[in-house]
Input
Amino acid sequence: MARGKKYSVAKHPMMLAACLVTSMQGPAALAQSMTGDWPAYGRDPGGTRYSPLTDINRSNIKSLEVAWTFRTGHLGIETDRKPRFETTPIVVDGTLYLTTPLGELIALDPATGAERWRFDPKSRRKAHYGDFANRGVSTWLDEKAPIGASCRRRIFVATIDARLFAVDGASGRACAGFGTRGMIDLRKGLRHAPFEFSAYQVTSPPLVIGDLVVTGSAIADNSRIAPASGEVRAFDVRTGTLRWRWDPIPQDAQDPAFATWENDSAATNGAANVWSVKVADPERGLIFAPTSSPGPDYFGGLRPGSNRYANSIVALRAATGEVAWHFQTVHHDLWDYDNAAPPALVTLRRGGESIPAVLQATKTGMLFVLHRETGEPLVPVEERAVPASDVPRERASATQPFSAIQLSPHGLAEKDLHGLGEADRLACSTLIMELRNEGIFTPPSLQGTLVRPSNIGGAHWGGLAVNSDRQIAVVPVNTIASMVQLMPADFDDDAAEEESDRLSQGYEYTNMVGTSYVMRRRFLRAPSGAFCSPPPWGALVGVDLLNLKKVWEVPLGTHPDGAVPGSPNLGGPIATAGGLVFIGATVEKAFRAFDVETGELLWRAELPAGARATPITYRAGGKQFVVVSAGGGEVFGEGDYLIAFALP
Output
């Protein structure tokens, strides 16, 4: 994507208003759609999170009730940091598979919640993990193996301490022929080794495509200029042999992206990893990888250039790991605007013409719609001028890409400040008057910069769901503002700690080793604790894929004090052919169902803890179930509950 270019629907002239939309359907995906299983994190290989089940629908949703509850017991394990229960189970071959934050794999009866077996990878429990979670597993069926053979059905789980296991889906025993006694150590063979144990983790499920299992990584990317390298790697599903690796920071000088890492920074920099969920198009042999920011997040003076492949949606050829195309959603990231949301694959149709597309929701609060085979925008994208940096040695990108579909607010004006009274509004006004505030993409500064969307988004790792029958995508977003400030590396740590203790919402400090700066950031709050940005503080957005525009927006939950609509949220939605969207995600302890066509709230259930996870739905024992994990940790509340809902 060249700087200064305005993108439109040039390669595929058509009346997008006349498009019809379906989810990505290959033979395997079509076969799955005829059953009640949920065989992958996003259900189908393209990650649409759409179920064809209609037993639970808009006419009977109010009767939905708890059918069973399962507790993992992981809260009883001694750790040095409290974990987050964020698993999204899969259901296949009449078994539900879920994980604990430490990567313990548990098999349940999907109709009753009764435990069948457990596999304990014996992950390292005390390592001060930065993102202590495991979001799920992937599976592969060896159709060449006889029925009943060991490891014919394999479950792949990647643990928080960065090991990949292949486990027999029937017995729960490790598949001895995979790697070393069923395990691969993902820390080995990296271009840059992690500087400490907790700086390299895996939190999202691996991707299975063909006879490959593909892994990414979660990296402490704001710690230094050379954190661990973020290679994506593909292993043989049977043996664990490494088939290929792809480094999102190009190392080959012949790669056109190499020149966008100036001053030889490609050799020294790390991260730009894929920590979120990858999706696949098996028919085209493509993997879609959402990449994150290079290190460190908030100062790029030692990595001048646009830093291509980082902060991008990258299409990789599954057979070789070669880049087929890429589209960068943020140039030279300085805001922690990594691509946290999984992509979703859809097919736009007009008459007899089918146009394969990728949907990518971003922390910048935008939705990019790209041609799946070329990466060309199918919704206009404009490169707009953005503010320059005033930090010594920093050179912010002069322009940034703006999609025509905006999901959440950009920037914050003084007239829009919120508070629970005049004192709150005055305090918020004083706060933002001290900050650089020139709209989205105002670079971090020494005086402090207002950032909206904040580093949690906009759209976040919860991603989106697509109802292909009704041509609607649904995306949860956050709308709160934050501030970020670069401070001299020799500032007074003790004074900073005292200041943090005095604040109702303390600063987060990070020493960016190798730079001259320490980063600090916090959400912008009034003395009452209310956010300075106007409500709703969290929303659910419906995008009409027929006309490719936002068509409805509703508050997602309420703030825990009950006074303000919309809760900050982390976790994803699912959509069903019954016309429903299910989502937890909010800080308050609740699970909800919305009408996919209007956004109307149709049903709400209380939970024992916040559901900081993406739910699933499936059919077992003649019934449709909706299942969600509750216990997101921190402000979401502790818990180890897997809760299944069904009709009486």
Q: What stands out?
A: Residues 1-34, 499-505 have pLDDT under 50 and may be disordered.
